[in-house]
Design brief:
The chain has 171 residues and is mainly alpha-helical. 47% of the residues lie in helices and 6% in strands.
């Protein structure tokens, strides 16, 4: 026998969301990604206030860069990945080392790109999205998460991460 589907009254849900303080909503967030995204938003807002975007020049060509290669443009790549938190320590050596390659993979995973060491046009396009635009994306996604109905979901749900092509089933 299939359990009865819980009926949701959206006008009541909207009133509850509007009357609930944002701190309370964070405490009752359905998915832990809400709080993680909120922390990332705070970090990016601080970045925007303290410093501007570190940009890798658009005409930068990395072609087939491999770990150990030396390129002048790697310095800017290192600075940008450090700024965004993917690289622990910025390097001015200009060497595409293992730490920088790992930072590239981390960035790609966070943005739903194929996780490899290559530096493609798609990677550079995502890397060059201004911090201001990322902040707007985070605000929009936080708002979307707030619309997930609060309350007991029976501990079961499915989370779909479209950019990463991942599906999480929680029992």
């Amino acid at each position: 026998m299939v359990p009865a589907r819980k009926e949701t009254f959206f006008n009541e849900l909207l009133n509850k969301q509007l009357s609930t303080s944002s701190s309370s909503i964070e405490q009752e967030a359905v998915i832990p990604q809400y709080i993680a995204l909120r922390k990332m938003l705070n970090r990016y807002q601080e970045l925007e206030e303290k410093q501007g975007d570190v940009l890798v020049p658009e005409d930068t060509l990395f072609e087939k860069v491999s770990v150990g290669d030396t390129l002048e443009s790697v310095r800017k790549l290192s600075e940008r990945l450090y700024q965004l938190g993917d690289l622990k320590q910025s390097s001015s050596s200009g060497i595409y080392d293992q730490d920088l390659a790992d930072a590239v993979i981390n960035f790609k995973k966070r943005h739903g790109l194929r996780a490899d060491f290559s530096i493609s046009a798609g990677f550079l396009k995502e890397l060059e999205v201004p911090i201001k635009n990322r902040i707007q994306q985070m605000i929009i996604n936080l708002e979307r998460m707030r619309w997930i109905p609060l309350g007991d979901h029976g501990g079961k749900f499915i989370l779909v991460n479209i950019p990463a092509y991942q599906l999480l089933r929680r029992k």
